[in-house]
Amino acid sequence: MEKQTVSFRLASDKVSALDALAGSLDRDRTYLLAEAVQAYLDTQEWQLAQIRAGMAEADAGKVIDHRKIKAMAARWRRRK
Predict the structure, then answer these.
(1) Are residues 18 and 33 in contact, defined by beta-carbon separation less than 8 angstroms?
(2) pLDDT, mean of residues 29-46
(3) How many CB atoms lie within 10 A of CB 33?
(4) pTM metric for this prediction
């Protein structure tokens, strides 16, 4: 996989925290940043897939009536 250099600004306290964490994990800053970016991308991809799946279900008519949802919420509130 081809790698490319990317730069961005980060608050100095976050850089210090990142460096401290990297040192305690015996890793370098680049490794931690790459891991963080991958975790962010994975989360966003999962969320978009869930949104698309929900939209497909709604388009197919697989929805719950609003009155039913309100009744369920009312029961949850009474349990407290």
Answers:
(1) yes
(2) 97
(3) 15
(4) 0.76
Kindly report the average pLDDT of the chain as a whole number: 95
Per-residue H/E/C for the chain: CCCCCCCCCCCHHHHHHHHHHHHHCCCCHHHHHHHHHHHHHHHHHHHHHHHHHHHHHHHCCCCCCHHHHHHHHHHHHHHC
Joined tokens for residue 35: 């891991």
CA–CA distance, 5 with 63 (Å, rounded to integer): 46
**Is the model's pLDDT at 80 over the cut of 80?**
no
Q: Please say whether the beta carbons of 32 and 25 come within 8 A.
A: yes
